[in-house]
Amino acid sequence: METIRIFDTTLRDGEQSPGCSMSAKEKLLLARQLDRLGVDVIEAGFAASSPGDFESVKQIGQQISRAKVVSLCRASISDIERAVDALKESENWGIHTFIASSQLHMKYKLQMDEDEVLKRSIEAVEFARKHTDYVEFSAEDATRSEPEFLVKLFSAVVRAGATILNVPDTVGYTTPDEMYDLIKLLKNEVYQADQVVFSVHCHNDLGMGVANSLAAVRAGARQIECTINGIGERAGNAAMEEIVMAMNTRQQYFDFQTNIVTEQLYPTSRLLTQITGVAVQPNKAIVGANAFAHEAGIHQHGVLKNALTYEIMTPQSVGIRQSQLVLGKHSGRHALSERVKSLGFELNDVELNNIFKEFKHLADVKRQVFDEDIEALITNNVRKQNNRFELQHLTVTSGTTSVPTATITMRVGNDIVRKAGFGDGPVDAALNTIKQITEQNCTLTSYVVKAITGGTDAQGEVSVTVEKEGQQVTGRGAHTDIILASALAFVHALNRLEARSSSISLMTPLQQEAAAV
What are the residues whose beta carbons fall under 8 Å from the beta carbon of 261, sequence distance 6 or more? Predict the structure, then answer.
């Protein structure tokens, strides 16, 4: 069977989802897991968009060696120079450059004609090829471009040295039949089409991202660009887990394989959820909470007799265990270390020691500590590093006859600040006081609470979305005390807001435009 290459853009396109921005440490943590998952290419970011993205791309490139690490660049010499500077010390890297090719984009966004786009594309690919043999070229909005111009453009960049030609369905507009026909056309008419790899990058605006990607493969594409959990701009991207398991489960139909270690799909999905605070819908294919759940009596009866009656793949094949390993206050460091490894995390001794202390504290409060609790401890520990704001102490008083009051101590930079405030309830009082201490004039637009595990002693998981001057970020916190979980989530969101504001303030207007691509 032929192998389809999986190009993961969770760290670049996925991060552009509202509220899904990640710190450099969180990106590196996810990149390591993507490498363990077996993806062939990791798009680490957009090095020219901000100093923070540059450093993140550089770190990932230097620490990931199995998967190829690339940076996205506009068809611009300065963008490509920035990407080369970030990746030149890496072991296995490449350049991904793009320009819009549809009449709509060329006229209104680029304000260029076809000849100008051709010239810019050739110059960019030739310059990139001087630095690396791996050069991918994308024609943005390809599925709404004139096919004749697309053939001309792709042929020109192949002559200039492009080795991968990407066909993005940038706005999720096309259908599977149209995508099939377009790839067939390009395979037949582009110069030396048999010497390059055709790739697709499908968005999900009409819910056909995965279907369009699979149609492209059947027509001759040999690389799919996708994201974990399908996150991305607007309605998101084609979901990697759905693409991979479709080819895996229906191998006789597709007759293709991937290098993905499918048992790592669910752990990777969980890690992304923990990092971003954006939950997966319960009925999400492959990795949703209900993907392998059966409630109807007739379904339960069938599954008990033979799981194949209602399950077309096993939960174990995607990394979902049928039973939970329960840890408690009597568990030791070794048991915790083994469980952490089995969950897909790699921690050094210092990080493990920090997690172990928090684990013991949680085990004293809870009778049982579940996998989800451990995941929450790990990702919360990652977030604490290099944050400007840190919650240190919180005391709340509330009742039927008293005004809800919160007294909070926080670290703000290098200063320790303590204040008290009021609110309509204990959570409102805590969040109001945090706003006073941090002096952040933002608006809370979403507040969601759920239990991570079952039982009255379960950790509460709180996700909040805050908005400030058009910027929207999501924060997440987990604790057995729901008020403290709410405060942790709010502080997490404020740290993300602070990090994003700092990055944007350092960007030129041109870089700010690039960051929005």
Answer: 36, 37, 38
Q: Residue 304 has which token pair?
A: 């008990």
Helices (H) and strands (E) in the chain, counts: 18, 16
Pick among 3.30.70.1230, 3.30.160.20, 3.40.1190.20, 3.30.160.270: CATH of 383-505? 3.30.160.270
Is the pLDDT at 517 greater than 50? The verdict is no
Query: Strand pairing partners for 100?
Result: 140
DSSP structure class, residue 324? P
Which pLDDT does position 324 carry in this prediction?
A: 38
* Chain mean pLDDT for the chain: 89
> The tokens of 419 are what?
């204040």
**Residue 222 contacts residue 4 (beta carbons within 8 Å):** yes
Q: Give the domain 2-276 fold.
A: TIM Barrel (3.20.20)
Plot region of 332 (φ>0 → left; ψ -120 to 50 → alpha; else → beta): beta
Distance (Å, rounded) from C-alpha 462 to C-alpha 110?
42
DSSP assignment letter at 310: T
Q: How many CB atoms lie within 10 A of CB 92?
A: 16
- What is the C-alpha R_g of the chain? 24
What span, in angstroms and rounded, lies between the C-alpha atoms of 463 and 395?
Answer: 21
What is the CA 486 to chain-centroid distance, rounded? 23
- CA–CA separation, 257 vs 3, rounded Å? 5
User: What is this structure's pTM?
Assistant: 0.75
